[in-house]
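Priority: low. Protein: Peptidoglycan-binding protein. Input follows.
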Amino acid sequence: MAEEIVAREGGYVNDPDDPGGATKYGVTIHTMRRLGLDLDGDGDVDAEDVKRISHAQAVEIYLNHYFLRPRIAELPEALQASVFDMYVNAGGNAVKILQRLLNQMGERCGVDGSIGPQTIAACARAYAMASNHMPDAYGIARRNYYFRLADQRPASRKYARTRTGGKGGWIKRAEEFISSRYHMTDAEFAARVAAWG
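Result:
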């Protein structure tokens, strides 16, 4: 899963519209500063350090800090890849999306962005009741999160919609984890983003 995320994230970028700042393989400068990864040994963590991160280092960061430490590995296996991928992309918001979904499914669960015993148990119960639907439900909730983010922040719309009006990277990424029958048609997508102008 981590290898797929690194491939999906791509190489070095430093988009001024991206709050993540300088990023390589999806690892942001903020993450590298938090982890103290001064790869060029000059006493600070800056864009030059981001450029130096290796593929293997990115995979290790994802496994340790975005999968094992936040306890995604303790969720039902069918949900792990999507929650993991979203955690890399949105941090604790990935867990909040899951926790809100669990509450909608009738499970009592705090919405705090952290996976603990309550979330793990609620997720196991919900998955046992709706194993065929829960991965799609999470993926759809994730897609809706991206839409709401772009609704509220015009600078982020370029991540949800291409210049030619098609599905942008955020939407395509969410739909990678949703059954094709729940993918938006081009017409549905165009209607959803029409208000963006």
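The chain has two domains: 1-69, 78-197. The beta strands are 23-24, 27-28.
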